[in-house]
Amino acid sequence: MGEDESQPNWEGKVSIELPSITSQKVWQVLQDFCNLHKWIPIDTCYQLEGVQNQPGLIRYCASTIKSLDSDSEPTIKWAKEKLLKIDPIKRCLSYEIVDNNMGFKS
Length: 106
Hints:
- With 106 residues, the protein is mainly β.
- It is built from 1 helix and 4 strands, in the order H-E-E-E-E.
């Protein structure tokens, strides 16, 4: 049986209260779409194409995953992600995974 085409795409939202820092300071970090490696533990994140922090930009993010078996080589998990919208007034952005080796499907 084929995939169910009527299922909506996965959506998520993240929010947290940080009483010791302003939302403007947080947004300065988050609005840089190719800055992910500076605030989460991944190896790299960089721009592949498009205009920096504008819809249409595609970034490449990757991280090396060590094998549980010490004799096995580590693997690199990666994703290419496209910035769909960015709103500095509401301080939010939307993106989609356009390619990856982790099993995500858009």
